[in-house]
Specification:
α2 crosses α3 (111-123). The chain is elongated and about 95 Å long. By secondary structure, the chain is an alpha/beta fold. The protein has helices at residues 16-32, 82-93, 111-123, and strands spanning 47-48, 59-64, 70-72, 75-76, 100-105, 129-131, 134-135. Helices cover 30% and strands 17% of the residues. It contains 3 helices and 7 strands. It has a domain at 47-135: Nucleotidyltransferase, domain 5, CATH 3.30.420.270.
């Protein structure tokens, strides 16, 4: 007894709506995500006017927060001593010769903390360093 012809057609699955949803989710997350370089260390930079200088590929960044704590390339140091800061800079440098050093400090940081960072850089014989500031014209 033959009730009908046997179908050899496989079910057709349309992937277009799935791909549309995935792209919409991707766009949503790309737009809603913020990329902030200073997200981990809260530093309110002082303002200045002028043109930014070009930076090199390898940079050592010394950050000082408002409490005077030091961070070398976003790694917090265990204390605020000059010897510890010099050791951290040397470890970060490894075998690189005379890298560029950026010193970023909060505007509430004591002058002594900034001078200690500059002194550590100078004692290590590094002569290429700069202080980072926030562009005053960008906020207007």
């Amino acid at each position: 007894m033959n009730f009908g012809s046997k179908r050899d057609e496989s079910p057709d699955i349309n992937l277009t709506p799935l791909i549309d949803v995935v792209f919409l989710l991707l766009i949503f997350f790309m737009v809603s995500t913020t990329f902030d370089k200073q997200a981990e260390i809260q530093i309110d930079l002082p303002e200045a006017t002028g043109k930014p200088t070009e930076t090199e590929k390898f940079v050592i960044e010394i950050s000082i927060d408002s409490l005077g704590r030091y961070f070398v390339n976003n790694r917090r140091l265990r204390d605020n001593k000059l010897a510890t800061l010099k050791w951290a800079i040397q470890e970060t440098m490894a075998d690189r010769k005379n890298p560029h050093v950026l010193i970023s400090s909060d505007k509430e940081t004591s002058y002594q903390s900034v001078m200690t960072a500059m002194d550590a850089v100078r004692q290590l014989g590094l002569n290429k360093f700069s202080l980072t500031v926030k562009d005053a014209q960008a906020d207007k």
